Amino acid sequence: MLNDLSQAPLLSVRNLTKHYGERLGCADVSFDIYEGEVLAVVGESGSGKSTLLGLLATELEASAGSVRYRMRDGVTRDMASLTEAERRLLLRTDWGFVRQDSTQGLRMSVSAGGNIGERLMAVGARHYGKIRGQALDWLERVEIDRGRIDDIPKAFSGGMRQRLQIARNLVTHPRLVFMDEPTSGLDVSVQARLLDLIRSLVSELGLAVIIVTHDLAVARLLSHRIMVMKGGRVIEAGLTDRVLDDPHAPYTQLLVSSVLAA
Amino acid sequence: MMTRASTDAAPEAGYNFAYLDEQTKRMIRRAILKAIAIPGYQVPFASREMPMPYGWGTGGVQVTASILGGDDILKVIDQGSDDTTNAVSIRKFFERTAGIRTTTHTREATVIQTRHRIPEETLQEGQVIVYQVPIPEPLRFLEPRETETRKLHALAEYGLMHVKLYEDIARHGHIATTYAYPVEVAGRYIMDPSPTPKFDNPKMHRMAALQLFGAGREKRIYAVPPYTEVRSLDFEDHPFHIQTFKDPCAICAATGVYLDEVIMDDRGGRMFVCSDSDFCEERRACGHRGSMLAEAPAALTGGNTHA
């Protein structure tokens, strides 16, 4: 379901590097991602996955390299050149971020409806009935019972919290969503349903997704392309099936063979 | 009671006029000027220790001390009343340290320091109302980080404020915030009007008097210049409403004013009376009679309590 490749990429990353003092976070990462495309970043703990995601989402400042994004008006801009106001507007409208730890991605003491409505209110929605209508609609789309709209996320299970995070992010119809280990810590049946949901939303909405995971099965199920990281560097990249079925780099071979029936 | 003539004795010896030293007053005046220039913006200032505990109006007292002149006539109210402890002690404080005249009449005062109310009587040009503010940051309970709330103000990112109102409606069916109801000032900054009842919010809109806000513990001063737009936040389908009261004031029969509930006995007896004691007294002086005036205790109808 890759889109028209003649168009410029949605996000274009070149030689992205991050040092934490002496230590290396990640080095020399380059890739392009187009609308409707899912890119998985895999690797073991400490391989630089989360650093990379932090850099892309402008939460960390890069030591070198560039991240360029094609805005809704068609103009591709360097993220470092955006003003603070532009950057934050982008983050809460055109981008989404689903976090591993739902307590960081949700307002835990605000009801599910308020969590979903926050982005709408941030861009100027001022009609309670309409905001609530959209919240109900999104609860349904992420398969949470409509009756839970006034419950706070503290009363939700882990899987429901992740689905609520997804609804909260997608309500403004972003074009690019970052996901940091969205399924970790969930039991396998809940994981399967969540993956199923993400997959159908991605294809339905034509989202571009960059998903960080250490779980090759997740990468296999969701992503079109995959990047394998080790020690802060990308050691192998390509179509998901090619990389997982025919890994070239020794480390990737090790990774693939260490998983039971991936 | 009413107006007290210039204190017979000179201001207390050993203190500068209105307690604060002149350099401190200059510093506070600079903050006030900046606050007036940017309506609704919280200006940091070097708040001083005052001879009263935080929460008793240290911010308001410092603002008042900095703007008082020898000719000023000061009125101090606490919850609308001129004769509660806080009001009496602050009034005495300035009588002793500045030797200025004080009054209980809203119309007569040039400076009115208040906690929790705006007088019922419409304020006029040339008057200044000084609010005592406990927590100046309207976003505080939504976003605990000061660095982040400052950024939200700077970028006018106020969606969060509506999340709070949304939660109110979701939980209670209506906006249940009844005091410290957030307002937008001059179309720009969101401001906490201090814990006044939302009943008083419309009075702030295009008020002829200068409104100054002082938060001593939080070290912030902010202001609303005369005739500035002040809009209470709401939703299109849940517009802002002020409180209404079923019955008029029980002792002066006023309607359309803010009433306090007074418990009369331990058998459920109660009455609702004006929270603005000066307004109520003046009406009674003009011959207005509430339904329970005869039964009301002397403390309410004002005997000689303002000494």
UniProtKB/TrEMBL annotation, chain A:
InterPro entries: AAA+_ATPase, ABC_transporter-like_ATP-bd, ABC_transporter-like_CS, P-loop_NTPase, PhnK
Gene Ontology molecular function, alphabetical: ATP binding; ATP hydrolysis activity
Family: Belongs to the ABC transporter superfamily.
GO biological process terms on file: organic phosphonate catabolic process
Protein's UniProt name: Putative phosphonate transport system ATP-binding protein
PANTHER family documented for this protein: PHOSPHONATES UTILIZATION ATP-BINDING PROTEIN PHNK-RELATED (PTHR42764:SF1)
All copies of domain ABC transporter, residue ranges: 11-256
Keywords: ATP-binding, Nucleotide-binding
Organism of origin: Microvirga flocculans
TrEMBL record, chain B:
Species in which this protein is naturally found: Microvirga flocculans
Record EC number: 4.7.1.1
Swiss-Prot/TrEMBL catalytic activity: alpha-D-ribose 1-methylphosphonate 5-phosphate + AH2 + S-adenosyl-L-methionine = alpha-D-ribose 1,2-cyclic phosphate 5-phosphate + methane + 5'-deoxyadenosine + L-methionine + A + H(+)
Keywords: 4Fe-4S, Iron, Iron-sulfur, Lyase, Metal-binding, S-adenosyl-L-methionine
Entries under InterPro entries matching the protein: PhnJ
Stated family: Belongs to the PhnJ family.
MF-aspect GO terms: 4 iron, 4 sulfur cluster binding; alpha-D-ribose 1-methylphosphonate 5-phosphate C-P-lyase activity; metal ion binding
The protein's name: Alpha-D-ribose 1-methylphosphonate 5-phosphate C-P lyase
Annotated GO biological process: organic phosphonate catabolic process
Signal peptide positions (record): none
